[in-house]
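Worked problem 6 (solution included).
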Amino acid sequence: MSESCSFIEYINDVRKKSHVGLGVDAKEAENEICGVILGSLDSAKSGKALTREEYIQSVRSYIQKDTVTGGRKRHDIYSVYEGYKNWKQEHNRFDLNDIVLKLINALKDIRLQNNDDRDNTHKRGWIQLFNAMYLDEVQDFSYASIYLICNIAGCQTLHWVFAGDTAQMISPGCSFTFSGLKEVLLAVQPDIERKIKHVNKLAKNYRVTKDVLALSNSVLHVAKKYFRNDIQYLRPEIAMKDVGTRVRICQWKEALNLEKRPRFGPNQALIYSSTSNSDGVALDMNDWLNEHPFIMTSLDAKGLEFDDCVVAFDEEQKAWNINSDRAASLRLLRELYVAITRAKRRVVVLINSPKMRDFFMSLPNCNIEESDAKVALLEFDSTTTRDEWLKRGKQLFDDEQYKMAASCFKAAEHFGYFEWAQGKYEMLQGPKELAKESFRRSARRFFEDSDYKHTLDLLSLVIENPPWNSSDDDMYDVCRQQIPSYFTPEKSVGFALNRNKWAEINTHDLKNASLAHLFRPLRTNPELRQLITTCSQSDLLDIEYSLPLSIGDYYIDRNDYLNAARLYLQQSDYSEQDPNMAEKATNLLIQSMITPSNSKIKSSSLDTIAKCWKQSRGTQASRILAVDSDAALLLQLYENPIQVAKSRRSSDALKKFGRDVITSAFAVSNELEEELHRFSSDQFEAQVDRALSKKFKGNLIEAVQWYLHRNDKAHAEQLAGKNIKYWSKHDLLEIVRHKLNVTGLIQEADNKHCLTDLVKVCLSSEVFNLKRALEISERALSSITKAEANYKDLIEAWDKHKNDSRVNKLLVQEQATSVFLNLFWKPKISSNRLSGRCIELFGLQIVEFAVSRAIDNPTEQFDTLFNFDKEAFEHLRPLVKFKNGDRVTVHGLQKAPTLNGKSGTILRWVQDKGRYEVRIDRRKKSILISPSNIKINGGFNQDTDDSEDENVAFHNDQTRAQSIQNSRVMNTNSSDDDSDQPPALNARDQSTSESSSGSDDSIPSLQERGKRSNSSDSSDDISSSSSVPNLTRKDNSSSDEEDNIPALIGPNNQSSSSSDESVPRRMIRGPRPTGNSAGRGDERARGRGAARGRGGAKGKQRQK
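Solution. The predicted structure is:
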């Protein structure tokens, strides 16, 4: 246990252990340490001692800092302070300055809870304990002490009064000035400088006589002369009374050698200096005055007053050489001033050296008389009574001047009071055991005098210092019988407890809250526990308010852990709480409820105990408990359930506390209900779903995203699957983006016609789920109808990953998607290997689109399509352009079938007939043949042998020559109008036009052919006035199903002005397929019918 100390104790301890001095004056070091290093305003503001550098630069020190000597002295004094500090730490001691700094640090951050003053106190950070402050003897306080007092007293009202006298500043550790006081006040309230009144000098003195006051003023005059900055506001006081006594001086040795020694009374004192050999002076003076009570130092006399004083300063002669460079001189003058001003009537000064006599005789404005010691001390010889000493002793006793009071009581020969005062003094200075024995002796003396009240008062002091001596029971029992109501219930119970008399204690005493502090230290006492067990339940409820811990122990012994923990944390007296036992009771409560029969009881109990912890220890109660304890886990759950959910103990909390407790913890901590998901996605599934529905107001896709943000993919998929029918197209896409495997997703996407959109999302970089994309694509291609609706968007999605090796692995598989991608990306290979599979799965329309999309050359397009299905795509055979002199073969003639297969030579283009004039080999006459009934030699099998060609070659050459000549004449005479050029033929023309110039086998004209087939399209006849158009895709906006099939681009998209380019292009096609095609039923038949277009209809007409 720490004890108080002073710097003087440290000095004495150092002197005992070492013969080496401090190196500095002890008094000066004490003033610097206590007044500057620890007691300055700067140390008060920082709440700690000044550092060495701060002290060296301090302006409040009396030691000059600008000189070499002064700087060295400051360093030496700070080293002494460091030794003093270490000594206090080693001996577990503290001084007044340590208390002041500790209070400053403890109080400056406290906030007053009063709403009216909250803003003001918050700004200052201090609590106001008093409305006003009066500080007397202010010069004896350090600046740190004044700073503390001003901040807690009268700071708001500015009701401050300070009274002091810098001339009396002799207390250790003082470095006071009124200018320094002003700095302290401005530090407390910076805006009050204009309100600080001037220092008022109390010039009228009503206490001392004229001659005594003149002597004290003269001493101050000397002090002001040599120490101008240390004695402030010096103006001579004016005495308001004069009794005609004069100040006398006499020789020290003469006075001590008087045959008749003077007898001092209770209003006379001898005062000596604390700077001299105080121990030797005290012995001499006590022997001289026969142990007079009032032989004291000037420091002890401070605050007292007497009628007459003898001043005996046993100083060395050099001390009276007043020097402004010596702090000892200033202290001597101040102590001399204090000693003189203790006398109200007369002063006698004992002189021990010529220097001292010269000092006093040289004082100006003084009425000092040098006289014989016998004469000077004659007036001190007086007769006194015991009552006078007893009265004076009681006055001093009431003023807590116990040492002098004991001397007065001894002089009065009242040993009861003497032992009492002696015990009080020993309580302050010496061991407590000595004080206790003094009190017992005092009580016995009062008891013997039948003074029962004072006997009980003294026994009260005795019992405060246990143990109680049973031999004193007789005194106590008799006194209580004589004055039974003298003690309060508190004192009576205190005596009973300290004397271990439990029979004197009853249940009513336990209920009394004012007596609780007496029973609390006896919490484990078996007598108290036994007394509690005899109480009824109603009594226990009453005792709970006064002794919660004792009743908590009672409950815990009976396994009532809830009530035990509640009482251990009872809010009524925070200092008496027992968190350790509360933790133990809470742990036991949790363990007892791991498998409760009623979860509601468990939830209610743990709710209650958690609230008790919060009310008792605040929101951070769990920090004071063992980290791994069940109680800490429970409190953490109620303080921050989400943090527990994230910790490694989340499963432990769920197991020990259960769903209801965790749900309650979320409610108490105002956490969102959906955060229960962090503990267990399964056990709190219904609550979380309900909370999410409420939070997102039915927007379930946000609820799904909420699950995903918490990495709960399973519940996200589950929620999505439950509500799959209610998702919009956008929602379905979001589900795929989050890579959820939701049952019924593809079916719902099919219903909402967004399969291809899902494929795009699956193949996006943020998702890229190849397996899911393949699965959805299979659904999009599950029938020709769906394929025709989705193929464009589908191939657009897949095209972005054409070069992805992962996708290319699909091309070797047998799924519809693999066939689909092969068709679009490798149509030539597909035409050789997968032709039937492609047409079966997708129909002719998609096959034709895929080929035309992948191959630009019309011839290659047709060849590829021809590989897929010769019959179905024959009508798409590309046009062929004829020139004069080309060798051709006749085919497809119906009225002159004998010419079919014959070879001939193109002579010219007959514009008005829209026919080619062809010279048939081995025939004399040429004939006019429609472009659709001829083909270039080599395009198909020829049935003309080489011998026949050679036999008719001459005739043909002549004929051809003549034809070429005629054609040149025609070309020369014709205009450049495009109408003179042979037109291109429509690829879908299936009619045959045959014409002959004078022969029965001539080919019918275009007009005649049109008459025979009124169902043919107008595009089947060739108009001689039209130019040669390029073949392009048909307009897909047509309502005719047949027009939805795109056409192939012809090989030549540009016109030419040469004669060779004037020959018309033509499309050579095979016979039209008739009837429905075999394969995937009606869908495939419809697909091929659409691909065939109008040609299919014409074929049927011909069959008819």
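Discussion: The radius of gyration is 63 Å.
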